[in-house]
Hints:
The protein is mostly helical. The protein has helices at about 5-35, 40-50, 50-65, 70-80, 85-105, 110-125, 130-135, 145-155, 160-170, 180-195, 200-215, 220-230, 235-240, 245, 250-265, 270-280, 285-300, 300-315, 320-330, 335-350, 390-395, and strands spanning about 360, 365.
Amino acid sequence: MEIELWWLLVLPVFFGLGWLAARIDIKQLLNESRALPRSYFTGLNFLLNEQPDKAIEAFLEAARIDPETIELHFALGSLFRRRGETDRAIRVHKHLIERDASLSQLTPDQRLHALSELGQDYLKAGLLDRAEEIFLKLRGTGRDEEALRNLLEIYQQEKEWEKAIDIAGMMPGHAEHLWQKEIAEFHCELAGAHLLNGRLDAARERLTAALTANRRCVRATLMMGELEAKVGNGETALSTWQTIEHQNPVFLSLVAEKMMGVYRELGREAIGIDVLRSYLAHYPSIDLLDTAYVAEQAANGPEAAYTLVRDELRRNPTLLGLDKLLEAQILLAPPERRADLDLIKNLIHNHTRRVARYRCDDCGFKARQFHWRCPACGGWETFPPKRTEEFDLNP
Length: 395
């Protein structure tokens, strides 16, 4: 293969241009690196070596030497907030905003960013009134959605449910019913306050609004049944509670004891026990078993209660169920055997205390008592009333 003569002339030119471009890039990189404070690289080194305290001190020194490092201020403030040092994060972001007010060095986007960061600092520190003031300023700006989300969180923490309903109605996706569950829960919170203060008509209006927003709101249905039972409408209360089976049958265990109370008042205790047995057969639950066990023992004695627990334990073997079976056995055992059975029951009970917890579906947070709103992640109706052992047994 012959090589054209002009290629021999062009190749050195290409090599020369490549060498020149490399020299320019290296020179530019060296100039930029020399312009950065030495403490900036020291801080990065501390971060890479997982020494956050020393990294913070180095970044502070870099910010003092070169006040123009805007992004460094943002990174530093975020680092303070994540470590829980909200007072230092507030100082960093306030310094940015106050300096901009006198020197006008921030771009509009940077100023909004600084305000948002300061609002999050106040929110993390629990200074909700100051955080609310900042996020209200951000309404209608490029950070409007972020402001709405933080305002919604603030109003939930302050239990300002009317304001929370208004904000949720402005959230993106509201038209697609993405926030209907939360809005229904806010109405339920207001209804609960009305019930405590005896304002039954106002409570009924709120519960109706909750079911209008989310017809599958179990909490609203449960409270509506309580309202009907309070005014003496036992039959209506029972029919209301029975709709929970179609909304979410997992929550039947929360209403089982209330249903049995109304059945007793109506003189239909046997029917109530049959209803609980039917629920237990279709939707097994430790809490539902406990209610059915107590009702069976009160109505038909310890032998019938023991049979109920034994049959359920055969269908759904759990340690919590075994604990209940031993409790029933103690009632039937002769006096000389009760001490041994009681010892075994206490051993089982001490172990089951670790698995007798409710667990959030969203974040996995575990709690000994049921919550309508997760204390960890803030999700609504994410705590199904099932114990962790029941989750572990299900595929």
